[in-house]
Amino acid sequence: MKAHTPYVVRFCWLGLCTIWLGGALFTATGCVAEPFAEGSVENPAFVPLSETGARHWLGPQIWGNRLQDWQSEGDWIECVTPQDWLAMRTAHHLTKTIDPRRGNFQVEARVRWKFDSSQEARESDGAAGFLLGVGNGLMEPESTALVHEWPGRGAGFFAGVGGSGGPFLFDHENPWTLSEGAPEWREVRLRLFGEVAKEKGVVSLFLEVRSAESQVVLESTSKVVPLERMTGGVALVSHPGTKGGARKPARFAFSDWRVTGEGVVVDPTATLGPVISTQYTVSRGMLKLTAQMAALGEEDSDSVFLQIDEGEGWETIAMTRVVTPGWTAPFRVGDWEAAKDTPYRVVYGLSEPGDSAQPLSWEGVIRLDPVDREELVLATLNCNHNTSHAIAGGWGLGEGEGRTAPHDWVDGVWFPHRETTAAVAAHDPDLLFFAGDQIYEGKSPTFADIAHIELDYLYKWYLWCWAYRDLTRSIPSVCIPDDHDVYQGNLWGQGGRKAPGRDNTGGYVRPASFVAMVERTQTSHLPDSPDPRPVGQGLGVYFTELLWGRVSMAILEDRKFKSGCDGVAPAEVTSGRPDHIVVPGVDPDLLDAPDLVLLGERQLSFLEGWAGDWSGVDMKLALSQSPFAAMSTHHGSDLDWYAADFDANGWPRSGRDRAVSALRRAAAPHVAGDQHLAMVFQHGLETHDDGVYSFCAPAVANFYPRAWAPTLQGPFRPDHGTEVLGPFTDGFGNRVTVRAVANPGVRTGLRPTDLYDRMPGYGIVVIDKPSRTYTFECWPRHVDPLDPEQGQYEGWPVTVSQMDNLGSSPSLFLPPLEVEGLEAPVVSVRDGSGSLVYSLRLALSSFRLPVFAEGVYVVEIGDGEGGVPLV
After folding, report:
1. How many CB atoms lie within 10 A of CB 576?
2. Residue 111 — φ and ψ, nearest 5°?
3. What one-character DSSP code corresponds to residue 870?
4. Strands 105-113 and 70-73
5. Is residue 394's pLDDT more than 80?
6. What is the pLDDT of residue 849?
7. Out of 96-105, 177-186, 521-530, least confident range
8. Quick one: pLDDT at residue 869?
9. What are the backbone angles phi and psi of residue 593, rounded to the nearest 5°?
10. Is residue 792 within 8 Å of 778, Cβ to Cβ?
11. How far, in Å, CA of 12 to CA of 30, rounded?
């Protein structure tokens, strides 16, 4: 990418407007292109980012399915799908939808058949045109933008032209076929007019194929459709047809796309990019902010600027370059003043620092550090599936495959999760925690395209950014990847090495450069790691501490160092996959060994230092991907029983014990996700209740349910009534005491059932600093948290004290102590060898301290701010 002089197009939305495709601007009535005036704060809809060059991002108003399937260059956008058998590639208009109740509408574009004129064009049943009425008015505008390929409910009408040059109007809610023909045309203008008859409840569609130059009508067709079927989104379509024999898959390009008329609803704010989203943290005086950029071209500028407004207008405080692959723009600003809210914006396109042109920006607020607030509210989310399992089955236009039954786009698309983001916003959280599986590599919404893995990931990652960007733009966030984010079903990272076989052999299956890109997109805004040395394959680390609102959070990587499980269990006790034990009674001691790793020595060393550091800290919390126990006993669509799952962080048990002991030294509960099963439980080491508490938040959306029913070895059914609360031992021999669980099976009566009846939602952790308590809340995704008539899942909220994380019912105590002169003393207990047993800041001046075994102890009392402690 290179620098250039930017221009902006100011749209007044008067009269006829057209859409910008690629690097060219098609002038519209009432619109002018002009340089930005100094001090302007506009976010234009269309802007020529460079005079030449290609990019996979199609512009702020167009979403392509998929990212790797489309490219803009010059005046055209074209389908460049690397798999030429993939059907119905779509490019959706984001700011325009059709509502025929408002009046007539017109859609037109230039269409070019992309074949080399020097070669003979073979027979094809490919086609190009428009998809109309996507969603039937029943889907969110963002969700309609995902519709492509598969016919089904909400898939719209396909108005197009085929190889023979003949126009057609197909109902894409049902399978259809095209006749073959040798393309006799290279370029045409396709024009569709919708004439509304409101009193009859119908729209008459007239489709014309015109000469590209003279606009003489070559052929035409018409159809009458119900009014509601034209309500919804509009997209371009490039359809390759079937391949095989003499047929040649077709690809098409488009230019001068116009969507006009009284029946067109315009939302000029519904754009995406070039700044897709931002995430930031502030910790111990350091602001780190990462802007996720669109997939820009090599000819586009790579300069991105961070500006703030402290009451005297926008001031540039930092500049960075776009990092590829991944197109991230990372900023770091030291000595950050966190005593007030600070408006910021990320500005893209300046050619040099100090240039007054400010063409494209994304705005938010860097919040004040809530050090004086009595409560810190953390929202936690994980496992973000965008579509149902059923909708991802595909149409099947490859060799030897036929079209399958229609799918349901209306109920099958769960993106953009607006009810969840609105509910989370209603809590006004101080911090967001995204615990992993922000994306799923397969069927969410498309298959895992390993051959083009970087663009495929970005296509899915952009959906996550799109869904959550209005939260992350102004609320600091912790985001950490899990296994599906790096395109693995499970992940035993084994120190970052290249996996010698499947994922269970330990290590990363995908290329290290790809894993590094994923981690850069999701974690580069986190505070610097205290031990940044790379691991295997040169991969970085992101485990670190975040201090916010006088709450210190240890951010852990519970997958990167974990040992592989291949061969640990005898094959005869597994399900055929080495990570699932399905035979009862296996001795847990046979599954453990001292050399097996969970967190690894580097993270344990970090936690040891973190436990004793209370500078600026009142309370502590640990954040990672998955709980440190095997907290599911049933899994899959049929909820079949298994004895143990090696993917769970209850294994290896010795590593789990070290992790729980490390957190107990800081009296820090653990917050995680991953399991698709919400739960609050207490870890046990020597007894069932002498460890820290753990909160596993529910999945935002999932199609792979799990359940906890430890006394049941058959398939789980909600009406079995098995005991699920109380003390248990998991499949690896770990002691746990369950306080609350949200097993699947509640019938909500909401559609789609495969979303709402699998207990989706999000978690809230309220950290009360004066009372030194943690309250874990578990909210269904469809509930309005401000409505007193609605509530959380049964069994929540659960409140525990800071001291409960040292054991709920300790039997041994040191003599009573009383402190004078310190309002909130830091108390550290060490054993006779000098090793830290635990350390915490108390809100009391007199207290009794629990211990876990008889012996001699040393108690250190101080202010935690570097003064010499009293012993």
Report:
1. 7
2. -125, 130
3. B
4. unpaired
5. no
6. 94
7. 177-186
8. 61
9. -160, 150
10. yes
11. 6
What is the tens place of the pLDDT at every residue in 675-731? 999 999 999 999 999 999 999 999 999 989 999 999 999 899 877 778 999 999 999
- 173 CB burial (10 A radius; 0-12, 13-18, 19+): buried
HEC profile of 618-679: CEEEEECCCCCCCCCCEECCCCEECCEECCCCCCCHHHHHHHHHHHHCCCCCEEECCCCCCE
Which of 2 and 315 is assigned the larger pLDDT? Answer: 315
Residues 444-472: tens digit of each pLDDT: 999 999 999 999 999 999 999 999 999 99
Cα four-point dihedral sign 55, 56, 59, 60: negative
Going by C-alpha positions, the residue among 500, 505, 503, 508 that lies closest to residue 489 is 503
How far is the C-alpha of 230 from the C-alpha of 137, rounded, in Å? 8
What is the distance between the alpha carbons of residues 792 and 774, in angstroms, rounded to a whole number? 16
Which pairs from 184-188 meet CB under 8 Å and 24+ separation? 185/113, 186/112, 186/113, 186/117, 187/110, 187/111, 187/112, 187/113, 187/212, 188/110, 188/111, 188/161, 188/212, 188/218
- Which tokens belong to 579? 């990570």
Instruction: Using the predicted structure, report yes or no on whether residue 41 has a pLDDT greater than 50.
Output: no
* Average pLDDT value for residue range 202-223: 94
Cβ burial, residue 179 (10 Å; 0-12/13-18/19+): exposed
Q: Which of 198, 192, 118 is CA-nearest to residue 156?
A: 192
C-alpha–C-alpha distance, residues 642 and 630, integer Å: 11
Residues 6+ away with beta carbon under 8 Å from 805: 663, 664, 667, 668, 669, 691, 692, 693
For residue 438, CA distances in Å to 56, 278, 446, 776 come to 22, 15, 15, 22
3-state secondary structure of 570: coil
| DSSP notation for 487-518 | T-SS---GGGPBPSSSGGGSSBSS-HHHHHHH
Six token digits for residue 433: 């925690």
Which residues, 6+ apart, have CB-to-CB distance to 821 below 8 Å?
Answer: none
3-state SS class at 611: helix
Task: Check pLDDT > 70 for residue 117.
Answer: no
Residue 763 phi, psi (nearest 5): -115, 150
Task: Write down the residue that tokens 């790579």 correspond to.
Answer: 302
Q: Where are the alpha helices (DSSP H) in 534-593?
A: none
> Bridge partners of 305?
319, 347
